[in-house]
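Researcher: Please translate sequence to structure tokens.
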Amino acid sequence: MSLIKCPECFKEISEYAISCPHCGYPINNSNLPDINKNICVFKSKSYDLTPLVEYIKKTANEDKNVFDRFKNKEDGYKAYFMLQNTIPGIDGIEINELLGYLVRYRHVPDFDFIPSGNPFKYDLVKPPHYGANYNVYEAIKTEQKKLIPKCPKCGSTSITTGSRGYSLFTGFLGSGKTVNRCGNCGYKWTP
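Model: Translation complete:
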């Protein structure tokens, strides 16, 4: 990312800025969505989704959930891969959420589309396991938090791992054994 000078106030701003944050002068309108031309802005970058939108208008079912959005599975796979090839770096959950929007409204979003992590957000018919707070990203974070080690005594996550070390009582016996130490309470235990 490089910096450019604003033509109005001459202060440095990002080359991707839509307007100058200092004076409000419009700089770059290329990152604005355009429903008529099927220009979608996804995570602040513009993409032309005309072939995908036309394909969806021919093959999609508006009133179905993520599993039944298209008349047959091949149409769904084709739309999925068309979107994946158009927007580099998009993941499966983001593809399903954006496809849900495109199928339901039959046009590109009129805002900068930033995924919420909920692939069923725009579906009129929700799948049976869908809950009010369903969010795949949050579920992944919850699973990752379970993997973080905690001190069995105080519950702190400030843990270091090292060798047991020398002891006056036992000398060097077991000094190479690995132990975890809590940085909060000093408790030691074997992993």
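Researcher: Any highlights?
Model: Residues 38 and 49 are 5 Å apart (CA to CA).
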